Amino acid sequence: MHIADLLLPLDEASGVPLYRQVYTGLRDAILGGRLPPGARIPSTRRLAAYLAVSRTTVLTAFDQLAAEGFLIATVGSGSRISEHLPLRPPAPDGNGPAGAGTPARAGTPDEDGRPHEEGTPREILSACGRSLIDLPRPSRPLSPGPRPFRTGQPPVDAFPLEVWRRLAARCHRALSTADLYHGSPGGLQRLREAIVTIAVARGIRCEPRQVLVLSSAQEAMQLVCQMLLDPGDRAWLEDPAWSGGHAALLAAGARVAPIPVDDAGMRVEVGIASAPEARLAYVTPSHQYPMGVTMSLERRTLLLSWAREHGAWILEDDYDSEFRYSDRPLLALQGLDRSGRVIYVGTFNKTLFPAIRLAYLILPDGLIDGFRRARGIGGQHSPPIDQAVLSDFITEGHYARHIGHVRTIGRERRDRLVSAVRERLDCLELTHTDTGLHAVAWLPPGTDDRRVSGAALRQGVEAAALSAFYVGPCPRPGLVLGYGSLTTAQITDGVARLASVFSEAARPASP
């Protein structure tokens, strides 16, 4: 080994002791394969002179490496690199898996000009894992806070924070040592009772024992798939659909049957014709995500009949039907079910604020015990103190008042988006804006919506490409624009930034 192979970048101003820098540099060179097993290391005196540090510095680093088994010191023979390390030398052509050679680099832009994240070697993943990382992401968040036009966020700025603080303080004052142990996997009894009062208003028929409190709709989806699907089972998925639902099906090893969506919701007749043996159907009937349509009563009835006749399950995701502006919220599909085939998912993360991390399942009788046992494995439960605060928030009437208030705010923000798009972006066509906190904006035919989404991201706008929600081909390009967490001023600014993207695209190229 030539001593030049041990050239280590040392920085005396870094604040890291020099012996530590020498130790880290040598260790990384050994693990990376640059210093091969069995190779002899130059003497500490010679290396110290070469690196322009004291011999004590090098001796200290060598002692640490020897103690950890990286170096073998032999009296009279110097030090050698251990031959018993699990090393992975770099691939000679640079095409080996990341971590084996040159690692995948973060910061390299993709075709949309967005930075890649550091890659995970596909070879180490299961078939399910590879399917999950291959799922297209509709958008890439730029920051944790509100950003035009991020979806899935309610009007957090309108939340009655002082009321919540007061209730939280009261719950904390009432804490006893008994409250410091594990909570019930099913959820706090008084929260389950409070959830029933909300569910009844949606036409849901249930009792507190049927309620299972969870952290999110995603956790609910994953639990349902784990409990009811075996690898290879068929499952219906709306096309387009929420990527989280798609991911949960893939993680369970299900064979996904994409079922097209039109203005009346999922085309149930297509599912019956193409995959009648499916074990589960995942639907968003009250406000289809992302298209925003409502499933017709005819199709709801047909879906329930299919599930009853084939012994299949229906997972109803009711993520934001409270935000309906033209008339009263529709009754849930679960309320029409007389065969116990519908599993209902509700969430407070989309109606109150994302950080609350509380959602729930309403289960048919035959599933209650098994699901609760499964959730209890490993002591899983949602934080009891947060459940207590939420139960008081509901039972004292604050929840109902808040929903009424934010429904008014949502309508105002919807109206601002519609008018701003009409004023600045008449090339876009907004559709199905009477429910929810997002809208689909159709792009001119032939537009590459993913490139538009990438260009918008560079302007600080998260406008998700509609095509990214599809399993099959996207029939028409579009953007999904969320407005729930934005003030009217932020909506106006977001539309202006989006308009600049289209202005830039329409500008003639320089000769």
What do you see in this structure?
The structure is a single chain. The protein is α/β, with parallel strands linked by helices. The protein has helices spanning 18-31, 44-51, 55-67, 127-134, 161-173, 189-201, 217-228, 243-251, 268-274, 297-310, 368-376, 384-395, 398-424, 449-458, 488-506, and strands at 40-41, 71-74, 78-81, 211-214, 234-239, 255-262, 265-266, 280-283, 313-317, 342-347, 359-362, 429-431, 438-442, 464-465, 478-482. A hairpin with a 6-residue loop joins strand 12 and strand 13. Helix 1 (18-31) crosses helix 3 (55-67) and helix 2 (44-51) crosses helix 3.
Rounded to the nearest angstrom, the radius of gyration is: 29 Å
According to DSSP, the number of beta strands is: 15
Q: Tally the helices: what do you get?
A: 15
Largest sheet: 8 strands, mixed
| Proportion of beta-strand residues | 5-15%
- Domain count: the total is 3
Category by helix and strand content? alpha/beta
Helix content: 25-40%
Regions with little confidence, pLDDT below 50 for 5+ residues: 86-118, 506-511
> CATH homologous superfamily of the largest domain, by name?
Type I PLP-dependent aspartate aminotransferase-like (Major domain)
